[in-house]
Amino acid sequence: MKFTLSWLRDHLETSAPLDDILTALTDLGHEVEGVEDPEAKLGAFRIVRVTEAMPHPNADRLRLCQVETWPDGPGGRTQEVQVVCGAPNARTGLIGVFAPVGTHVPGTGVDLKPGVIRGVESNGMLCSERELMVSDDHEGIIDLPADAPLGARFIDYRGLNDPMIFVKITANRPDALGVRGLARDLAARGLGVLKPLAVPAIPGTFPCPIRVTIDPALKEKGCPLFAGRLIRGVRNGTSPPWMQARLRAIGLRPISALVDITNYFTFGLNRPLHVFDAARVKGNLHIHPAKGGETLLALDGKSYTMQPGMMLISDDDQPESLAGIMGGELSGCTPDTTDVFLESAYWDPVTIAATGRALKIVSDARYRFERGVDPSFTLPGLELATQMILDLCGGEASAIALDGRVPDTTRSYRFDPARVARLVGMNIPEAEQRRTLTALGFTLTGDQASPPSWRPDVLGEADLVEEVARIASLTRLRGKPLDRAPAGVPRPILTPLQVRERAARRALAGLGYNECVTYSFIDGKTAALFGGGTDALRIENPISSEMTHLRPDLLPGLLLAAARNQARGFGDLALFEIGPVFHGGEPGEQGLLAAGLLVGAAAPRDPFGSRRPVDVYDAKADAEAVVAALGAPAKVQISRTAPAWWHPGRSGVIGLGPNVLATFGEVHPAILKALDVKGPVMAFALRIAAVPLLRVKSPTRPALKLSGLQAVERDFAFVVDARVEALTLVNAAQGADKTLIDSVRVFDQFTGEKAEAQMGAGKKSIAVSVRLQPVEKTLTDAEIDAVSARIVEKVIKATGGTLRR
């Protein structure tokens, strides 16, 4: 919403400075986006007199002018300045506009400096209108009348000192889309008095020859009221300079007096109007829903094809206007127009919005009607516009032709002054609250408040409180801590699952992963790759074709994020996400998952050869680290029963018996191909809720247990079948003595042709280091040998191998 300061003062009697008005507008909820102050741009340009203009001694087309200036304004000291000018109309005695040295000329973007032109000094500039950006005229410098006040500022003389204000209006305040609505808010705040708006009653001197009818299908909703009148004998020339200046200031191009008047009412009083050239209207006007297929050449020069249900204004021959959005070219006014039909109507906001979106038309009328204009101002707006047309264009007005009636918007809500303190926390006297609501146009009867017809956003008691608090200013609120109900240390508010979610997020971030947040919706084809895509997980009303199903896993979102990063040159990635996944469409059929993704290299390039591709063991180590951070037991089982989207030979499942804690490994190449991801890709997915809770719930860590006895390490090498997993061997060794054996670690694996040549076909060697930690006393050799024998026995029994000699 754009308007000028003088336009605002037409409705608001105020002496408040511009800065106070801008501050109040923002505080009232109308955020000021910008201000264009002509004084900052044109304040330095003053009216001067050329006392002598003679030919330039070194250039035929230049003139050497002696300019009499008044730097301190009219009546002040004078100063003569020499200026070299190339304008053809530069002459002795000319009254023009002068820019002194140091001035920024907006039309050229130049900051004036003292100069020498063809060997002659020049200090300043005599300006044209285009150089001041007040018009496109640049045939010569500005030539003012002889009675122009010498030394005065040009913007004051021409009435250009009118700041333009750009305010951002929220969608729930259609009344503020007119200058008068903003003036009403400022008056309620106390920055002035709202001037009365006198609505004349224009007597019709003859019956209107154009009748109007509304289709019965539209009277209840689409168009409750349509009114208009014929004005004959008008002169459609140019609008007055003051109106043109205001329209130009807000970015509109003056067209003609009739069109400019309708634009003026749109922005000034939030009352969109339309004028038809009556000579081009065939018969009467009908407001009706489109059948579909009708075409209209609109005022923007484009042809639009109607869809069924769109509202049209048609004469007896063809459509003439797209109701509430844009008029038609064929019935538009021209400079030759002498008879016009002035229309003022109320249109249903939903229908206007649907039509505008379907046809992709954006207009000032649509912008206002789809938000809701004042239905009660339909006829007063017609009277006011008629009066302005008669004043500016002449003519004779007919009686009003109308169909329908003004929609009834009366409603009332209970007004409780004490509720302001309860809802907002502000203590405002009841008298002030009543004064505020009355100033905003509300009608108060006892404890009932009725909103005005221009406020469709007020729909309840809380809205009354909001209006009172808004006008009083929410800056009066002072923050204070809430009273704590129970004394002492507050109890924890996070659930155990939320605590573990936070621990998982911190652990993954500490491992160097970057967190992603992706949509919970994916397309059905991708969901099917990860065990989803069923009808139970289909979205009833998806927002796009790529978001039709609830995700069964977090990996699709992470893989798509990796693909987007790879497409932009980021090859080394470590991403994670924590969020819900769904295995059914019913409440509760979801789980909380933490997933990580590794792509590219494990380290950056360096001189020491540290860079290597990520592998399964990187994903396994990170998954185990997160599981440990959540408090899972140290001894878990690992199996190969991973789902189908994992690589069958390079993946595993971490579990506690049948309870699956996490899955890790390489993502199946077919999945990567389907999602256009460059592999290989390592990943893991951890079920946070599956990790068992700690038996001892304490906010502190348990005491560190250290042994004062010397630990003993023994190495063992076993020859086993090539298909035997190292984990099977480690678990067997670990179970030989659960009290003394602290850890078992693989430190060597001998495989390949050389191994088979020494140990036999299909064989390999696995070497482990076993750490024995005494608990009560130092171990003797005999005790160590006994444990070693049990380790060998357990491993041979579990793997079928032999001790390597």
What's this, in brief?
This protein has 805 residues and is α+β, with helices and mostly antiparallel strands. A hairpin with a 2-residue loop joins strand 28 and strand 29 (448-450).
Describe the protein.
- Helix content is 26%, strand content 26%.
- With 805 residues, it is of the alpha+beta class.
- It is elongated and about 125 Å long.
- The mean pLDDT is 92.
- Helix 15 (496-510) packs across helix 18.
- It has a seven-stranded mixed beta sheet, sandwiched between helices.
How are the SSEs placed, and which strands pair?
Blueprint lengths: L1 E3 H7 E2 L4 H10 L3 E6 L1 H5 L3 E11 L2 E11 L9 E7 L9 E5 L4 E2 L4 E2 L3 E3 L2 E3 L2 E2 L27 H4 L6 E5 L10 H11 L3 E2 L17 E3 L1 H4 L5 E8 L8 H9 L7 H12 L5 E4 L7 E5 L5 E3 L5 E3 L5 E4 L4 E4 L3 E2 L11 E8 L2 H11 L4 H6 L8 H16 L2 E2 L3 E4 L8 E2 L4 H5 L6 H10 L3 E3 L2 E3 L10 H12 L23 H15 L3 E2 L5 E2 L1 H6 L19 E2 L4 H13 L5 E10 L7 E10 L16 H14 L7 E3 L6 E11 L2 E9 L1 H6 L6 E7 L24 E10 L4 H9 L6 E10 L2 H7 L3 E10 L8 H19 L2 E2 L2
Parallel strand pairs: 15-18, 30-33
Antiparallel strand pairs: 1-13, 2-14, 3-13, 4-5, 4-7, 5-6, 7-12, 8-9, 10-11, 16-24, 16-25, 16-26, 17-24, 18-21, 19-20, 21-22, 22-23, 27-29, 28-29, 31-32, 33-34, 34-38, 35-36, 36-37, 37-38, 39-41, 39-42, 40-41
Helix pairs in contact: 1-5, 5-13, 8-11, 15-18, 20-22
